[in-house]
TrEMBL record:
It comes from Rudanella paleaurantiibacter. The keyword NAD does not apply. One of its GO terms (molecular function) is DNA binding. Residues 145-210 form the HTH luxR-type domain. It comes from the Bacteria. The keyword Ubl conjugation does not apply. Keywords: DNA-binding, Phosphoprotein, Transcription, Transcription regulation. GO terms for biological process: phosphorelay signal transduction system; regulation of DNA-templated transcription. This is Response regulator. SUPFAM superfamilies: C-terminal effector domain of the bipartite response regulators (SSF46894), CheY-like (SSF52172).
Length: 210
């Protein structure tokens, strides 16, 4: 059973999550806090396996809370939850070290997928936010000289966007009005340019470049 700490000042939402997890055999909410400053003290006195962190808390910005938690518990999965879906906000949380970002408007199944992913050591980004990976709101940071900068073509960006959503070559071909063989060629080019070997590594790589 994964023990969850919720940091969210919207008590109705937090209480709804607590009620939802009452029927789960995998997750349980052990405490709810409403201030960012309460997160670390709670982690110090409670055994917590997962943090659900609202991006907009009354006292501290979400990224600041995430960085402090990451410094204290480097291995603790953090899932950001928020009504905010602006690219700059999502990227700020990802840069601060959260393992995933899920809108509060997400369906129950998507939330559970997010929890399973971050607890399994993966990075999760809700499908509605995948564009954040490909179209950063800020200039990309300089890349070390030993790592050449490769730019994806517009078509490769489109295919990469669909790959990180878990679509197959056939499904992507249908979406892009091309053939599965063409999609496979794009996939190989994307992987080669970014130095990755699968969709999980692709997601991580795009997050690093976001």
């Amino acid at each position: 059973m994964q023990r969850i700490l919720i940091a969210d000042d919207h008590r109705l939402f937090a209480d709804g999550l607590r009620f939802l997890f009452q029927f789960s055999e995998l997750y349980e909410v052990v405490e709810v806090v409403t201030l960012g400053g309460e997160v670390l003290p709670t982690l110090q006195r409670q055994s917590i396996d997962l943090l659900l962190l609202d991006v907009t808390l009354p006292d501290l910005p979400g990224p600041e809370v995430a960085r402090s938690v990451r410094a204290f518990r480097p291995d603790l999965p953090i899932l950001a939850i928020s009504m905010e879906t602006e690219a700059a906000t999502v990227q700020a949380m990802l840069r601060a070290g959260v393992n995933g970002y899920c809108p509060k408007t997400a369906h129950h199944a998507d939330l559970m997928s997010a929890l399973d992913a971050v607890c399994g050591g993966e990075i999760y980004l809700d499908p509605s936010l995948q564009h954040v990976l490909l179209y950063p709101s800020e200039p990309l940071p300089p890349v070390p000289t030993e790592e050449p900068v490769y730019r994806l073509t517009p078509r490769e960006q489109e295919v990469a966007h669909l790959l990180v959503q878990g679509l197959s070559n056939t499904a992507i071909a249908t979406r892009t009005f091309t053939s599965p063989r063409t999609v496979e060629t794009h996939r190989k080019n994307i992987y080669a340019k970014l130095g990755v070997h699968n969709a999980v590594e692709l997601t991580t790589r795009l997050l690093q470049r976001a």
